Predict the 3D structure of the following.
Amino acid sequence: MSITKDTVKKISKLSRIASNEKFEENMIKDLNSILKFVEQLNEVKIENIEPLASTVDQELIKREDKVSLMNEKKDILSNSPSGNEDFYVVPKVIE
Amino acid sequence: MSEIYKLTLCQIIEKIKSKEISCEEVTKSFVNRADKSKKLNCFIEDTFDQALKKSKDQDNKFESDKKLFGAPIAVKDLFCTKGVQTTASSKMLKGFKPEYESTVTSKLWNEGGNLLGKLNCDEYAMGSSNETSYFGNVINPYKNDKDLVPGGSSGGSASAVAACLTSATVGTDTGGSIRQPASFTGTVGLKPTYGRCSRWGIVAFASSLDQAGPMTKDVKDSALLLEVIAGHDNKDSTSAQNKVEPFSQKLKKDIKGLKVGIPKEYKVDGISKEILNLWEKGIEVVKSLGCEIKEISLPHTKYALPTYYIIAPAEASSNLARYDGVRYGFRAEGKDLIEMYENTRSLGFGDEVKRRILIGTYVLSSGYYDAYYLKAQRVRRLIKNDFDEAFKNVDTILTPTTPSSAFAIGENIDDPIAMYLNDVLTVPANLAGLPAISIPAGYDQNNLPLGLQLIGKPFDEQTVLNNAFAIEQSINFKPNYKDWWM
């Protein structure tokens, strides 16, 4: 399998990264060399091998759902690039 | 004392507790040296004034029961620090001030550590040379005729410890980001077992691989830092409930009878002759310490790096979806919401981060998921099985840390695969979730430090540390750079 300009366009769109001619050309080269490298895995016999998503060997621990004094609205909103003290402001979504 | 900064973390704390030196003197010593070392570009942001003030308070309110009392500690800029800019070395997070503190760093401060600043790293910890940072390259205190990289991604941390700009530090290791830079700078770096330390409040890269760990001048310092930062955390459901031992107190150099495995597959293509010689030397040292050497086989070693370069980008593409320009960090304008997202991510992320997001998106996308992502997860199991099998017969595994010594800035930057190969010997321990340490073990012909790696069984950091301690005591490595940058 190899990555074409259309593939880069498609995955850039899926990744929400703006793309242009120069970006696509650079990425085609790099991504294809990375893909060629990872395709070494085609040599490995993987029949009947279960995928391993995590090495954690314990049941995930749940915690009680209770109110804490973390995550105050004012503090959190202070990092918003829109600078509004009450809301996250974004470009208009509904006409 | 004139050269406090040369002392190890344990020595500093001992001298503070015996009132031989004051907390303020210690902090001043590091601040003065760091001030004169700006050329190395280790710090993205310093908190020197705050640290000096706290050190005076510490002298006035002496708390000798705290394990790190008075130790000035700068941390990798991947750890969220309350009210102090945290960037992950990305333009995307420039100006971001978390309103919370990561679990690992809060444990440092609870034990009397004193934040000295935030250390440079590769952008979102993606890189092996610290060259992907938005805040510029970090310079290795070791040099030949050119300036050298410190390794990465914890490059600022490694250089800062090596150059004595902090008493110790914590880094993160997803594929070698603690051990490879430790090897390049003649310092000690420990990646604990996956789950040993909480990931809460650490900027996420690849969540099934990321692990925080100590970077220090010697093994004992790493043991002490690990016992401080390890432990279960309710806020990270993957953090382990295993008991945390007082690793530094239990440290011993008598390792007679220990079975040490030598995996033949680690003689990878492109590994330098000098590294192989160093490995031989390491084998002789552990033999002379009374260990039993066993040749072992880890047959899927060569597939670890390709596996990693599917799994890590896949997890990264998902983790980095949160950077949308809405809630924090950088925002670029756009005519509508989608264009604002796309412009923000295009201008906010650097090239290496974009490469990995695109690869990750590709291997997770419809039609490719099974062929790449699921296949990589299956091979990951085979790699873990190799280790499980090997650890039936050995206690630790001894390998080199890196296939070469530190390289010049710019040397590998145009070839992503050449850069990725730096991690060929460190990545397997991440995929299998195992603890692994790099310790300095000698110099190459250009007087650049080289590291040896020890890999251990899950949650058996104590044996790894003991083995490393014994080798360290036997080799007696001494830093040999000059302060050329001052």
Chain B has a mean pLDDT of 97.
